[in-house]
Amino acid sequence: MINIIVVFPKKEVALKIKNILVKNGYDVAAVCLTGARAMEAVERLEAGVLICGIRFVDMVYHELKEYLPDYFEMIVVARREQWQEYGEDDVAWLPLPMRGFDLVDLVAEMQGEIARKLKRDRSRPKVRTAEEQNVINHAKELLMEKNGCTEEEAHRYLQKQSMDSGTNLVETAYMVLDMF
Predict the structure, then answer these.
(1) CB neighbours of 60 closer than 8 A, spacing ≥ 6?
(2) Cβ proximity of 51 and 77 under 8 Å
(3) How far lies 35's CA from each of 50, 89, 90, 110, in Å?
(4) Where are the domains of the chain?
(5) pLDDT in tens, 130-174
(6) Domain 3-123 is of which CATH architecture?
(7) What is the CATH number assigned to the segment(s) 130-179?
(8) Whether the predicted model's global pTM rises above the 0.90 cut
């Protein structure tokens, strides 16, 4: 489920947007009246969509945009004149007067985009530090020396032991080093 934060300086507007989303099956994680409160709400969440106006009491939307982590998207709801004055390309814009189904469609589109981004980044193999790689290499060298095997066989042994014990390759390499 996607996290949604609604940020508008007028509480009535924020609650109307929240109600539209809730009626369409979305859960709104936070309703905020200031950019600072929105930043606090964002810190507690991994990913989501922030729906806001152009200006808040304490900042303008693009200042808040700079603070958003990679897995957050922003939808700005504003009049055409405001958007022409402030607008930028890296956020989505919904013109006022806003239609509820336009908001719901855009949130659904962004939800899919965020999910794809999260899935892609989680499926990437973790990059090992030089220290971790050195531990693995040292463990392979010991296995090759003690068991008379090739580097490929030593690596396969580490992988198998890692899978069998439910530990990652680096932890398994440390166990091998402790054995010898």
Answers:
(1) 54, 86
(2) yes
(3) 11, 20, 18, 21
(4) 3-123, 130-179
(5) 899 999 999 999 999 999 999 999 999 999 898 888 888 899 999
(6) 3-Layer(aba) Sandwich (3.40)
(7) 1.10.10.10
(8) no
